[in-house]
Write a structure and sequence with these properties.
- This protein is α/β, with parallel strands linked by helices.
- Helices cover 49% and strands 16% of the residues.
- Helix 4 links the parallel strand 2 and strand 3.
- The longest helix is centred in the N-terminal third of the chain and has 15 residues.
- It is globular.
Length: 98
């Protein structure tokens, strides 16, 4: 799948433009966010956006081993991880933490 030019995609999509502004604001205020996806393909596309914006993130999906999942969740909850987003493809909701 070919991703269109990301700057154009962000500007042309009202929802993505709003999410872009929100994530920029949350990052500047020191927040982290947990983002839920129903499909791993959507995670792939969102990873392209995060890389474009140079946001650091953790990704947990069906390809993650149990030990990797445990370690990622522990790091996210207990360490001062310098990552803006934690991408999940599981039964979780969108939540923000400070």
């Amino acid at each position: 799948m070919q991703v269109p030019q990301l700057q154009k995609l962000i500007l042309d999509s009202g929802k993505l433009a709003k999410l872009d502004a929100l994530l920029t604001q949350l990052k500047s205020e020191g927040h982290r966010c947990l983002i839920y996806f129903q499909m791993t393909r959507m995670m792939d596309l969102f990873e392209e956006y995060l890389a474009f914006r140079q946001h650091k993130y953790l990704r947990l999906d069906g390809g993650s081993t149990i030990s990797e999942r445990r370690d990622m969740v522990t790091d996210w909850q207990t360490k001062c991880v310098l990552r803006l987003s934690f991408l999940l493809c599981a039964f979780f909701v969108l939540a923000f933490s400070h």
